[in-house]
Structures are given as C-alpha cells and as structure tokens.
Design goal:
Layout (H helix, E strand, L loop, with lengths): L4 H16 L2 H11 L7 E5 L13 H10 L4 H14 L20 E7 L4 E8 L5 H11 L5 E2 H10 L11 H13 L8 H17 L11 E7 L5 E7 L20 E4 L3 E7 L1 H7 L1 H10 L4 H15 L16 E7 L4 E5 L5 E6 L2 E6 L1 E2 L8
Parallel strand pairs: 3-4, 10-13
Antiparallel strand pairs: 1-5, 1-11, 2-3, 2-6, 5-6, 7-8, 8-9, 9-10, 11-12
Helix pairs in contact: 1-2, 3-4, 7-8, 9-11, 10-11
Bound molecules: aspartic acid (ASP).
C-alpha cells in the first residue's frame, strides 16, 4: 500500500517515539501526530456552561480543554459533566438532584463511545454522586449496556465507588419536604390522583419561585468531537423531580437520551423524557444526519415527531400543542452543531476555539408550553 507523506511522518515519528518514550507519552503520541481535520467542538445543555462547582471552568470548557490536549473524547466529556453532577447548586443532576416521591435521589446516565462503538448505562442508581462514571465502567468492564437499581449500586460498590446513604443536600431535602407537605395524604390510595396532586403541588412551587421550571426536568447531555473526527456523548440526570420511585426517563436509554454513531454524529436531549422515549428521538436525529440533514433540521424534525405523537388532552395546551418542553443538542462529524427545542427561551452550551458560550436554541413552536 502506498504511504502518503503525512502517514509517513506519523509512522516514522511514532516509531522513533516508540523507541524512546515512556508508556504514558506513547499513549498520547497518535493524537499529537494526527493532522487536524475538523474543528473540535463540545456542545451541551445550557447547564453545561453555568455551573463550576467552585472551580474555574464550566463543563463544556473543561471537556474542550481536556479533549484538545489529547485526552480521550469520552473521558473529557465525563470530566466535564462531573462538575455539574457534583455541584449542589444544580438540582437536576447527580449530588443534590431533586429526589423521587419517597425523598430518595435516584440517578440515570448513559454514554457512547463513537470510535470504539461501545456504550454503557445505569438507571435508578442510588448513593453514587457521579452516575456518569458508573455508566462508563459498565461500558468498559462488562458485556452489558444497562444495569439498574440495586444491581447498579452493587456493581458500583464492587468496583470501588463510594456508596453514600443519601445524596440529598439540605436544599433538595427542604424542597422535597415542601412538596410532600402539599400532597393530600388521602390521595396516596389512588395513584392517578396522587400523580395529579403531585403535579399541581410542583406547579405551585414553580409559580412561587421555589423550583426553577428547568429543574422539574433537568439533565446534562454533553457531546464532543475532536480534531481527529472522534465523537462521543454522555447524558446524566436525577430525572423528573418527585417521580414515582423506579421511574426511568429517556436519559439512560440508548437512542433516546443519547445516541452516537462515530461515522455520523451525536445527539442528546433534556426535557420530558416520556415524550422522547416514545420516539427514540436521538436515534432519529442521528439517522436524519446520516441522510445528510444539517443538525438543526435533523433536530427540528424530531421536535415535529414529538408534536405529532402528543395527542392526549392532558399533555396539550390551549393551542393544541405539547404543554411541555424537550430540547435536543447535536453535532455531526463535520463539526456542525445545533441546539433545538419545542419552545423558545431554551439555550445550549458550546465550546469551540473561541471559548465557551451559551447560545439560543432554535424553537419549533412559538409561545410558552403552558399558555
Ligand atoms: N429527560 C429527563 C427525564 O425525563 C429529565 C430532563 O432532562 O429534564 O428523566
């Protein structure tokens, strides 16, 4: 086979490094030698450029920095979302995430590695602050793609993760107690009424400014592409606030909360998980991009699918549109990216060589979900 000059330089420099370099340098050598082919980019939900957990970088900034210094794309993205998982101020992800109806924080996460064509996830895991790291271990050390509940916790314990009794912070517990106080205990006998009462109490708490509307649902999805065209993604969440214990949304489900095809691109979501699960929209978006759609059009097509599938009256507003929001974040192999949402006033985080930014997402519909 003929070797071009670039390959020759890479091979010969790599070979001479191999003779001289210690193991750690060797591991980095291909990244250093490979010519730049795409502009590296990291995109995430808006909380990816908000929380710093007392440090000096947001998630997208950290992930971009690690990635462009030669780190594995997925390692870099997970280091980024760890900041949000560990920051008690984000009540939608990891430690301090709003708990389920029993006051227990249950977390979901999944990750996909484009070049390795591997994936891993955990759902309903309790006691581990950073479920993204456990999802990565499922991917790296098991033959499985998804481990849930007690089994996920036992798996995490067995490979050395610290298991804590309670992931509530003072704030998440205070808000849960407030929610609990508003529920008529009689309704516990009727699951439907209980859900309705729970929803009403939650909306009252939003109206009173106790909970950010964004954090009823709330998650971080983060996707990255490095200069070599390698794509990975991670999604991690505490899921829907006050959910029925054991409820799993879209976030840890491959094709729903996240989908990556290393040859095409990545897509992930935040917002009402049930709506996204029904249509496996991250998969739909990546397939759209495979057929040549721009990330923005691919995402808006998924928003249209959600609108078309939402026909139950309880889920519609006065205009007959969905009364909830769903957001998608996607990038393709060329480095084109977009954030889209059902409704305006959504944004997403992005980091390129121009630095980290928060950008307004493209909405499908007008007005507010609840009008
Ligand atoms: N999609 C997540 C879920 O349904 C929550 C969110 O992103 O808002 O669990």
């Amino acid at each position: 086979m003929e070797m071009n000059r670039r390959d020759f330089v890479r091979t010969t420099v790599g070979a001479s490094l191999a003779a001289a370099a210690p193991r750690t340098l060797l591991a980095q050598a291909p990244n250093v030698m490979t010519p730049k082919t795409t502009n590296p980019v990291v995109i995430a939900s808006a909380n990816g450029n908000k929380f710093k957990n007392g440090g000096d970088m947001t998630c997208v900034h950290k992930a971009w920095t690690m990635m462009t210094q030669g780190g594995d794309v997925l390692d870099a993205l997970i280091a980024g979302v760890n900041i949000v998982e560990l920051d008690p101020l984000d009540t939608s992800v990891g430690y301090g995430g709003l708990p389920n109806a029993d006051g227990v924080v249950q977390l979901d996460s999944c990750c996909m590695h484009g070049p390795k064509k591997r994936a891993g996830g955990v759902a309903c895991i309790e006691g581990v602050r950073t479920p993204s790291n456990v999802a990565q271990k499922v991917m790296e050390t098991t033959d499985h793609h998804l481990i849930v509940g007690q089994g996920a916790q036992r798996f995490a314990r067995s490979i050395g993760f610290k298991i804590e009794d309670d992931l509530n912070t003072e704030e998440s517990r205070r808000l849960w107690l407030d929610w609990k106080r508003r529920i008529d205990p009689e309704h516990y006998l009727d699951p439907e009424k209980r859900v309705e009462a729970g929803h009403r109490a939650m909306m009252a708490m939003v109206a009173e400014g106790l909970i950010d509307r964004q954090h009823i649902h709330g998650t971080i999805n983060c996707n990255g592409l490095n200069a070599q065209g390698e794509i990975c993604g991670i999604t991690t969440t505490s899921g829907l606030a006050w959910k029925i214990p054991g409820r799993v949304g879209d976030s840890p489900i491959l094709g729903a909360g996240l989908y990556v095809d290393g040859d095409v691109g990545a897509a992930g979501s935040t917002g009402r998980g049930e709506a996204n699960l029904y249509g496996l929209c991250s998969f739909l978006i990546v397939e759209n991009m495979r057929r040549g759609m721009h990330p923005k059009d691919a995402g808006l097509d998924a928003c249209r699918r959600i609108k078309a599938n939402t026909i139950e009256k309880r889920l519609l507003n006065s205009r007959g549109d969905p009364n909830f929001n769903v957001n998608f974040y996607m990038l393709n192999r060329k480095g084109e990216f977009a954030g889209v949402a059902l409704y305006p006033e959504s944004s997403f985080a992005v980091c390129t060589e121009d630095g980290p930014k928060t950008v307004v997402s493209e909405p499908l519909l007008q007005g507010k979900p609840t009008d």
